[in-house]
């Protein structure tokens, strides 16, 4: 049985890597001043972040039910088993909508088989998992083996984020107005991680130097065999800092496999320019 792997644009994978790994990417919706775009298709992240810096009103929305149904009907024409790795359900309704769409299409096409997984991951945490799963499928692994690997890996995938400007977290409701004003005046940078699929603030640092020191301490405390895994680093108009983090992994841990990309619209729209995000596993299978 052929297994085809699908994920969404919240995975933040470079298009070339997605193409090489035979991964289909479904776009999340992005709105700038009320105009609708498809993430990674009709808008890129540079355009989004420049609009945010200019004060535009930016929103995102899950993939609509109608989009899923149209796409799943297309998949139903194939004899392959489709495996959709969805953006964390704690951050988006995309997973639940995909399940509803599959149930609807399954009634029309009873032989259509699809497994939809709530990965509890986001950005390159999701992207790295999707690459590994796509490779397992290409090598002929069984669906049972793949699903077992996903369950094991998604609980080991570490996500850590820092935000440069609290104004964008204020817009997303993650900090209060007073916290945002005081934090920006004092140059306090929040640090967040993913906990059971949700993005949760857990630490803060004053200034970039102390921020990086805290990120490096977090990596040391939570990483496992960092020289034997792919490290994900995503940023928002902040490539210089991303490369600095890469050098830290190379120097301290001997890491030599990286995916570095600009954070896409799905997460970046809520965190803004100047963000740095790091993804790695606490354990290596």
Short description:
The protein contains 11 helices and 13 strands. By secondary structure, the chain is of the alpha/beta class. Helix 1 links the parallel strand 1 and strand 2.
The count of β-strands is 13
Average pLDDT across residues? 90
Number of domains: 2
Q: Within the largest sheet, what's the order of strands?
A: 10-9-8-13-11-12
From the helix content, strand content and strand pairing, which structural class follows? alpha/beta
Helix fraction, binned, reads 40-55%
By CATH, the topology of the largest domain is Hypothetical Protein Tm841, Chain: A,domain 3
Major β-sheet profile = 6 strands, mixed
- Rg, rounded, reads 19 Å
CA(first)-CA(last) distance: 25 Å
